[in-house]
Automatic annotation (TrEMBL):
Annotated InterPro entries: AA/rel_permease1 (IPR002293)
UniProtKB keywords: Membrane, Transmembrane, Transmembrane helix, Transport
Subcellular location, record wording: Membrane
UniProt name for this protein: Amino acid permease
Keyword Transmembrane: yes
Major site of localization recorded for this protein: membrane
Its membrane topology: Multi-pass membrane protein
Stretches that traverse the bilayer: 32-53, 65-86, 107-127, 147-163, 175-193, 213-233, 253-275, 306-333, 354-374, 380-403, 423-441, 453-472
Domain of life, source organism: Bacteria
Length: 504
């Protein structure tokens, strides 16, 4: 799967980067499996399942598990589109450079602005959720102050590990991958095989969550069970310039992240449903945090404590992967002169070869957001909901830009190609993305206008502030890096590749 033997039809990494207008400044020490581990620990099925298990069951009942299949299939299509893009453009930053090279500077600025805030908010949310596991591991009572301190501790430890360099980051990501697999597949299989208390037919039982209305409405309401799970695979492309043979390896790593993440989530979610001693209490909303009780009753006190160690490791690795991806996006954005303080943000440490200043920002802003959540705990759900929608919006801006270029005649020139299926896959991926964004942006029905519209309000604030800065400061005019060159670059890559084949 890793494809270690070089193919004569592929440009070497330095030459490929040179065609794109950049020079190597990083150590290409990240292997295929380390790149996959980075994406997987960012996607983190353990974090996703634990965070939304009770919510999904209370809204959609046991059939909400089918959202894992639906969203997994949709995001796999998106990863195929991303795979072709990153195979032609294996450069740092992911969403931002892809949008820039496929469309243009201003379009890319808005995509990156939305994505940066979504990632930073996601870092905050994951650290906040992880603080609960860390507190339980050390027997620290859950209070607003302890949650704040433990959240900051997770953020700072991840920052220190990221400062150590790409190799350390890769090792921690691989440890996190092992922890994730034990925590979701291992525990999930154990629950399925030895602790099953519910029949498999329960996954087709709505258990009355729809009340007197249509179950379809309830099922759509539980979509977040899948939508929150399947992003993070794009992080494989955020560190492209630190991966050996990225044009070949990163598309495979992204697809593998989706497939293994989906299987892991199914085992985990299904195992907890089938092992729940009182499933009706979870579905009715009486039991709002059921997983600790399920683990205590099935694994015993010692087993539950071991699981906490695994969970804390997974959360730390997830925060580390998120910080790494966000810092590379900030670096890529700054390298092109598109942000205030771009010279400071685009500095790379001479010894460890990491964008240290961008890493500091990727840690400091989440700390400030954690302070806001300390003041108002209700903000956590709001910022989490915005993070998911913001990431999907940024994803679909790339998918739309790729489809636009295909209509204009673009044929991706990287070693990973969908060939004649590219247009169809691109179109269906965009249709899926629009459907997903509709599900995420639908206003609630609580009667509280602010609470019902908070996700769209948050996205609106980010879009308006980003738009104002873009059209007042005009950072796009200060940046002279290439943009909108997908067709020209594809032709240049084919020409260079043909020349390489001839000389070999």
């Amino acid at each position: 799967m890793s494809g270690d033997s070089p193919k004569p039809s592929v440009l070497d990494d330095g030459e490929h980067l040179n065609v794109l207008g950049y020079q190597d400044h990083f150590n290409r020490s990240m292997s295929f499996w380390a790149n996959f581990a980075l994406g997987f620990t960012y996607l983190s099925p353990l974090v996703g399942v634990y965070s939304l298990f009770a919510v999904a069951l209370s809204v959609g009942g046991p059939p909400s598990i089918f959202w894992i299949f639906i969203v997994g299939a949709g995001q796999l299509l998106v990863s195929l589109v991303f795979g072709e893009v990153v195979s032609q453009y294996p450069i740092h930053g992911g969403i931002y450079p892809w949008a820039r090279r496929l469309w243009g500077r201003r379009y890319a600025w808005m995509a990156a602005w939305v994505y940066i805030w979504a990632m930073i908010v996601t870092i905050t949310a994951v650290a906040e959720y992880g603080s609960g596991f860390l507190g339980s591991l050390f027997g620290i009572p859950s209070t607003p102050l302890s949650t704040l301190l433990l959240t900051v501790a997770l953020l700072l430890v991840a920052l220190l590990l990221n400062f150590s360099g790409t190799r350390t980051m890769a090792r921690v990501a691989q440890i996190g991958l092992a922890a994730e697999l034990v925590g979701v597949i291992g525990v999930g299989l154990y629950l399925l095989l030895f602790q099953r208390k519910q029949p498999f037919s329960v996954f087709f039982d709505t258990m009355g969550v729809q009340g007197d209305g249509s179950y379809l409405t309830a099922f759509f309401g539980a979509a977040l069970a899948g939508l929150f799970l399947f992003y993070g695979f794009e992080a494989c492309g955020d560190v492209a310039e630190e991966v050996a043979r990225p044009a070949v390896r990163i598309p495979r790593a992204m697809m593998l992240t989706i497939i293994v993440g989906g299987i892991s989530a199914l085992f985990s979610f299904g195992g907890y449903v089938l092992a729940a001693p009182d499933l009706q209490a979870i579905v009715s909303g009486k039991e709002t945090d059921p997983i600790p009780a399920i683990l205590e009753s099935t694994l015993g006190p010692v087993g539950a404590k071991i699981f906490l160690v695994v969970a804390v490791t997974a959360f730390l690795s997830c925060v580390l992967s998120l910080q790494a991806a966000a810092s590379r996006l900030l670096y890529s954005f700054a390298r092109d002169g598109m942000l205030p303080g771009h010279r400071w943000l685009s500095k790379v440490t001479p010894r460890t070869k990491v964008p240290a200043n961008a890493l500091i920002v990727a840690c400091t802003v989440p700390v400030l957001l954690a302070l806001l959540i300390f003041v108002n705990e209700d903000l956590l759900n709001s910022v989490t909901a915005f993070a998911v929608l913001g990431i999907y919006v940024a994803f679909q801006m790339v998918v739309l830009a790729a489809l636009r270029q295909r209509v204009r005649g673009w044929r991706p020139a990287g070693p990973f190609s969908l060939g004649r299926w590219g247009m169809l896959v691109n179109f269906v991926a965009l249709a899926y993305g629009i459907f997903a964004m509709y599900l995420l942006a639908r206003p609630g029905s609580s009667g509280n206008v602010f609470a019902d519209w908070i996700v769209l309000i948050g996205l609106g604030i980010v879009l308006v502030t980003g738009g104002l800065y873009l059209f007042i400061a005009r950072p796009d005019r200060k940046s002279h890096a290439p943009a909108g060159d997908a067709i020209a670059v594809a032709e240049q890559i084919r020409s260079r590749t043909a020349a390489v084949q001839t000389t070999r």
